[in-house]
């Protein structure tokens, strides 16, 4: 049996490399991601909600990363969510015309040879459903109810707590906007210590 010919189209690419190869713009890449372009993350098991405009803006094509705060860990995540690599999650994409199923590769003599299951790219996890404004406001009000006299700092405490309770990433600007609408009076006083610190 002859040597197997490697399918070079099945190689994962950085977002920048794929865009240069295909002469794609960032909007074109994002459209492909919204429509099922396969991707994987470093570390594995993270999910991005490409329907969220803040996540789309956060994608850095050249470094092929998305800031950690915009990623959700799926049940397949292999690294603790406290892991950071310059506070970002790496992303690699599979070209749309790459062989999706690498279980069998055509050998030069017409025989089919099985490849290892480990060589088969893992399917991208399904992105989480976008969080509705109503759900976001409801979550902030629930947190306020738990801390009525002890306001949380919006960026350092409230935003992470909202994400923890919802179980997925939420854009910081969305949390800030919802906080201003539903709990504008629930603000940590400037220059005064919190009750818990007195």
What does the secondary structure layout of this molecule look like, with pairings?
Layout: E1 13-14, H1 15-22, H2 26-34, E2 39-42, E3 46-47, H3 53-58, E4 65-67, E5 72-73, E6 88-93, E7 104-106, E8 112-114, H4 133-146, H5 154-166, H6 172-182
Antiparallel strand pairs: 1-6, 2-6, 3-5, 4-6, 7-8
Structure overview:
- Mean pLDDT is about 75; it is low at about 1-10, about 80-85 and about 100-120.
- The chain has six helices and eight strands.
- With about 200 residues, the protein is α+β, with helices and mostly antiparallel strands.
- Strands 1, 2, 4 and 6 form a four-stranded antiparallel β-sheet that branches. It has a two-stranded antiparallel ribbon with strand order 3-5. Strands 7-8 form a two-stranded antiparallel sheet.
What is the element string, with H for helices and E for strands? Answer: EHHEEHEEEEEHHH
Largest sheet: 4 strands, antiparallel
- Give the proportion of residues in helices: 25-40%
Number of domains: 2
Got a strand count? 8
Helix/strand/pairing category: alpha+beta
Oligomeric category? single chain
Mean pLDDT: 75
Q: Number of DSSP helices?
A: 6
**Span of the ends, CA to CA:** 78 Å
């Amino acid at each position: 049996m002859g040597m197997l010919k490697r399918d070079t189209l099945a190689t994962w690419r950085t977002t920048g490399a794929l865009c240069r190869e295909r002469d794609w713009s960032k909007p074109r890449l994002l459209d492909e991601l919204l429509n099922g372009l396969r991707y994987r993350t470093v570390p594995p098991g993270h999910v991005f909600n490409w329907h969220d405009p803040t996540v789309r803006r956060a994608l850095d094509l050249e470094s092929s990363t998305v800031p950690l705060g915009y990623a959700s860990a799926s049940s397949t995540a292999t690294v603790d969510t406290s892991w950071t690599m310059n506070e970002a999650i790496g992303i690699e994409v599979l070209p749309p015309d790459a062989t999706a199923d690498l279980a069998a590769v055509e050998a030069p003599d017409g025989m089919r040879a099985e490849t290892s299951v480990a060589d088969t790219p893992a399917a991208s996890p399904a992105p989480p459903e976008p969080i509705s404004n109503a759900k976001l406001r409801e979550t902030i009000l629930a947190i306020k109810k738990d801390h009525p006299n002890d306001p949380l700092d919006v960026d350092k405490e409230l935003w992470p707590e909202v994400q923890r309770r919802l179980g997925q990433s939420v854009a910081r600007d969305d949390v800030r906007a919802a906080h201003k609408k539903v709990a504008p009076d629930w603000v940590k006083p400037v220059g005064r210590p919190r009750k818990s610190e007195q």
